[in-house]
Design a protein that fits this description.
The chain is mainly alpha-helical and 326 residues long. The protein has one domain: Glycosyltransferase. It is built from 13 helices and nine strands. The strands form four sheets. It has a three-stranded antiparallel beta sheet, covered by helices on one side. A two-stranded antiparallel ribbon has the order 2-3. Strands 6-7 form a two-stranded antiparallel sheet. Strand 8 and strand 9 form a beta hairpin. Helix 1 packs antiparallel against helix 13, helix 2 packs antiparallel against helix 3 and helix 11 runs parallel beside helix 13.
Length: 326
């Protein structure tokens, strides 16, 4: 099947899937980065329609997420910029105010993943800091990333652990979850795209954090280009999504000048491996997926990262072709 046909099937499939708050955001972000603005704006509208009074976006199915809802923040902000509609402006501002002033956080100001449980999840690196950066709170975005890194990064493995319980002072889930490390790489790339050049210290720090997590994951990559669900545990199932997430991050980072060109062959390898996991219905099989995200299945976020990977590849290829013609 041609890559354009595959992408079309993946896009159609994700639109049929029920979505949690973060999934609404990452799917909308995928359509936005691909340039499918009409769909992205419709998804932003739905996120605002389901916004809580406290500012959290897309809160249709559960009440506890703190950072997950912020995955919708950037697309609502972009919708405000594109359309000028007050509904989007107010929605983005309410989400921002929640993160800055109301979200539960530790004594050092790092936002917990959920309300009332005192846990840091590695997922949060993608959910909240990129929106803070897009909204102009660049230093706060970096500070949040550095906080999550401080609590969750394993300096020996060069990988992030999944969950830290700040109340008990111990890991709630001390495993090196593949998709969690993918959230870090993808989240950092989104922040890098927003940082002003004059923030040289922050830029250099994020570039180093990006490279270390990518290198940490790649040291456990399988011959087929994929990874195990728990990156350093070959007894766990083979996951589809981390390869997509890292491929996305590498294409974006090389295009942005934050990683050298030498990373591109491995991004191509992971992209090719992802193609092999798409079934006849356009569903990416074999990733950590619904309903409990602890077994191979499908999920909207997996579909979204296939789209994001393709969007990043097209942008990389477009820049490379442009440079070759000048």
């Amino acid at each position: 099947m041609h890559e354009n046909e595959l992408l079309g099937k993946v896009k159609t499939a994700v639109l049929t899937m029920q979505r949690w708050p973060w999934e609404q955001g990452v799917v909308a972000q995928a359509f936005y980065e691909l340039g499918d603005i009409e769909l992205a704006l419709l998804m932003a509208r739905e996120a605002v329609t389901n916004q809580y009074k406290d500012g959290r976006l897309a809160m249709k199915y559960e009440r506890i997420p703190a950072t997950d809802s912020a995955a919708n923040g950037e697309i609502v902000l972009r919708a405000a910029q594109i359309t000028g509609e007050e509904k989007f402006k107010a929605g983005a501002q309410k989400m921002l105010d929640y993160l800055l002033y109301r979200a539960p956080r530790s004594k050092d100001g790092i936002i917990y993943h959920n309300e009332n449980d005192g846990k840091f999840w590695v997922d949060s690196v993608y959910m909240a800091p990129p929106f803070l950066a897009a909204a102009g709170y660049h230093k706060e975005a970096v500070r949040q990333v550095e906080g999550y890194r401080r609590y969750l990064f394993d300096t020996n493995k060069k990988l992030y652990k999944h969950q830290w319980d700040d109340y008990s002072g111990s890991f709630a889930r001390g495993l090196h979850w593949g998709v969690g490390n993918g959230w870090v790489a993808a989240g950092i790339v989104r922040i890098l795209r927003e940082l002003p050049r004059e923030l040289t210290g922050e830029l250099e720090s994020l570039k180093a954090y990006l490279r270390e997590v990518i290198d940490g994951c790649l040291s456990y990559q399988r011959e087929d280009g994929l990874f195990h669900d728990i990156v350093d545990d070959p007894e766990t199932f083979v996951d589809s999504n981390l390869a997509q997430m890292l491929s996305y991050a590498i294409y974006r980072a090389v295009t942005g000048g934050w990683l050298p060109e030498e990373y591109i062959p491995v991004a191509h390898k992971m992209r090719k491996a992802a193609y092999e996991r798409v079934d006849e219905n356009g569903l990416i099989q074999g990733s950590c997926g619904v309903p409990d995200f602890n077994a191979p299945a499908t999920a909207p976020e997996v579909q979204a990262f296939y789209i994001l990977m393709e969007a990043a590849y097209y942008d990389y290829k477009g820049q490379r072709d442009k440079n070759a013609s000048t």
